[in-house]
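We emphasize that the prediction below concerns an isolated chain of 480 residues; any contacts that depend on oligomerization or on bound cofactors are therefore not represented. The input was used exactly as deposited, without trimming of termini.
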Amino acid sequence: MTSRKPDEELARNSRLRLVRPRALATARRAVTTRRTRPAPRPPEGTPPRQELARQARTVLGDAVRIARWASGARAPEVLPARERAAAALDLTPDQIRAGWDRARLAGLVELHGETARPGWRLHAWDRDDSAVLRGWVALFDAWSLVHPAPEDVAPGDVAEVVEAVPQLLSLLQLSAGPVLVPALLDMLQQRVEELREERCEVPSADAADASLPARGEEPGAPGAEAPGTDAPAAAAPVSAEALAPLLGWALEGLAAVGALTLRPGQATLTPLGNWAVWVKLEQICVAAQSPAGNIEQPAEDMLRGCARLTPGPARAEYRAWLAARTLGSAVTELLAVARGEDALLRGLAFEALRVVGAPAEAEVRATVDEPSLRPYALLWLAEYDGADPDDAPEVLTREEATWLWVDTAAAVADHGESALLVRHLDSAVQGTVPALLDEVRAVGHPRTVQVLVALAAAHPDPALAKAVRRAAFQVHTGGA
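Result of the prediction step, given as a token string:
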């Protein structure tokens, strides 16, 4: 009787075949599809989302027309060809310039090299109210870019006013009606003074060093004190007259994006503006009520804390953590964690980046050439571009899918239970164990040996465990 090769026997043995292969997204969905807490309701009197979206479409109407006209054009041609665009769209050159800026800020158009391409929100504009509202909120957040500040004002003063605007918006929402400009100016002055005092409360490192006695000198000895360093400098006084033009600029900027209506001497939030302020306040409340207490932690510790949570509460933690930071620094910090050695944190970092959404797109796209992040980045970008999560894995090559399988197995081996590692076989794209082992050996993941050893130790079938151990030994020794 002719003996069969071990791998042939393994492939023929139905007990050792993998179950019907499933998409990687299906395996992830089995973990992430759980009950989430109900979404909070907006204040009474807020128009329904459909009406809010209609108003947002009106505000961004010119931007949408320009984005559709510009899509496919080379970006440098867009503004020099203002007259041609103006004739085609029946808009003035200034309207073309303003609409182009708004289209970019709202994510309606994206620049890829010298080519302008429609953003995913533009594709969904006529059918997805949520995409429309997200696009408008992105414009709302960028109001200070839509309406440039006066050139004769110091950048630091402009930054203080931008930082103080949320306080003004809160006042406008609480008032539930028109607010007089003098009241807003008084609020702005108070907030700017608070910001300056907060900065003055923390002495600089140089000042702290200067206040220490020199080597060999006793405290209080002549020459041991530096003038003016025994207490933080007092905050500079804030002049209402100097702030008045900046208040006018801020109100005009907010009105330009559809958040305010202005009348002589007063300002009122529009329904869109009122809803946006409520959304921002909800984010702050989520941050203040961070259920797992991760808001003040660095990204790595926050993600480790979220690893113990089910997906719904984890997303709430991500939102709370993000709400307490600037998005740029948060994205950078999350990607730094993703580049680390912990595969579990790598996956969680990209889940947190899904909560970030559009502001993370450029940074995520830049990681596509990094082997350890490429599969995660490709899946993120596919979902960002509108792919169904179940279909997103189709963007991965067989090799990339195998690399991701090994990386996920490493996360399970480090943080999960043995039974979960065995079940992880079900998510492999290969149909048999020999095919999986061949491709796992070839993919070159740095954790391949550890994953195979852990899988061999966990699997209850002795023949399969032996084959996996042999594969681990071959990878370790460099054998075929």
